[in-house]
Design brief:
By secondary structure, the protein is an alpha+beta fold. Helices cover 46% and strands 19% of the residues. It has a two-stranded parallel sheet with strand order 1-2. Helix 1 links the parallel strand 1 and strand 2.
Length: 52
């Protein structure tokens, strides 16, 4: 059985921080998107799901 990786969005106004976290989390099996504040809101609306 294949498991679907959890999807995370990393939001920060510093692109270097986003990249660092995305690389780390990606190596640990997560599907990661990065965004600034406005991009994050758009991405969340496009996915139609939010798990807190």
């Amino acid at each position: 059985m294949t498991t679907i990786p959890a999807t995370l969005i990393v939001v920060d106004d510093d692109p270097e921080i986003c990249e660092l976290l995305a690389d780390y989390l990606g190596r640990h099996g997560y599907r990661v998107f990065t965004a600034d504040g406005a991009q994050a809101l758009h991405s969340l609306r496009a996915e139609h799901t939010l798990t807190c």
